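Allow me, if you will, to draw on your knowledge of protein folds for a short while. I am sending you one protein, given as its amino acid sequence and as whole-number tokens for its backbone shapes. Kindly check, if you would, that the fold set down in the tokens agrees with what the sequence suggests. The record follows directly beneath this note:
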Amino acid sequence: MAPFELRYLSVSWRDIQRVSKIEQSSDEIELIQKDDAWYAETIAFPAIHHYVGIRVLDKEIKNPPYILSAQGKKTELTPITTPGKKETWWIESSAWDNRNKRHLSELYRTVGRARVIVQGQTLVIENNSCNFSVAELEHYLADFKNSLWLLILSARSPITTQTKKRLPKVLSEEALALLDGFLQIVQNILKRPVTTLRETQGPRPLLEVRPVNRTYREYATNPSARHLTSRNREETANTAENRFIHYCSNRIHFFLSGLSRMSQSQAVSFLNKAQYERALLSDFAHKDNRKKVDKDVFCNELKQMEEQLESIESEVDQLNLMNKGRVTDIDPVKEPFTLKIGKSYADSERCFFIDSVNGESFWAIYGTYGVVVFPFVISKHQREMLFAAGSFRLSGQYKTEEESNRSGRVYKKISFSVAPKWSLVSHPIISAIKRQYAKKAELEANNWSASLTHEERRDKEIALRVS
């Protein structure tokens, strides 16, 4: 017995994740075990947006069911739960149709074969059409070239088919020899064609007339006529054998004409490819280990870096909004200093370790660790964007004191009584932008060309050896 069941499902959705109603078919889809796999046949209805649902019967689900594509890619099925029940069904979702509020499923709407792994067992679903089955589809595909059916089927789709029969080689030596033999036979027949005599009727002189019924009628109406209708004979090649040869020759002519056009097209394609490869080889051999850099791509990367820096500076501005120019009498205004702030201290959103102060390691200066305390909460998003790699110059009212932790270790603590003013001193994105601008100036001076890397030079040498 299979550890799962299959049914057709009609699902109504509230949104992309929530189900409002599930209707299932009264009968299960029949499962047949062959060798080491389970097989099921379904019918595809492209105009109806139903689903093929899989329900695992075991209490424990080892792994979520997934579709294994022809390229070995795994696509997990989407679980849905029947409202008011504990039944979980697994369906294939290709995309979410936001307009009609439903998941689209190629497994139900596309003809083909899908291989699904459920509870470690293989389930092969053959999705047939009302007009033809998967086997008939494979038979039809066998009549097309391999490049044609790749246009019909998507390589990313979980639905696949296969062509079991190998296509004949039309341009094989055997096929060409048969065509040559046929043409030689036709030429020999044309030299000495088979003919036959056919009886006809026509006017003849009186002394040469071979009478037919019409001859007597003409003579009765005009006894003095010099020519009367007579039986004649003519040689003709319009025989059953010759008509068959003509039909075969006509079909071969049509086939060879198409083959000639295809060969000419292939010749042009191969010639263009050869010219491209020769130009590429010449380019490799004469460019002195340099490559062309796409200006648009480079400038777009630089623009993205500048936009990232703008977002960082915007977060710094948000921190400065908390200052509002307030001054208190609690602590004096001291000299600004530069801090590189580390991780959160004691999981607090206001206290943080100090990695360095004024560019030097805090531990190397004081022989212990330091903690900075702010009078406001700093969000996780700001901490991840700013504290991870940047250094900041802080100015404001603060006090420095020593405290002991739970273990009795003495550490330094800098506490701000009001929100300080922030200014960004250093950040990896700033250094990256400076390097990018320096590289841009170099590329512009070299007409947007750069030296090949070690790996690119090695690939070029391999290409030259192969050519």
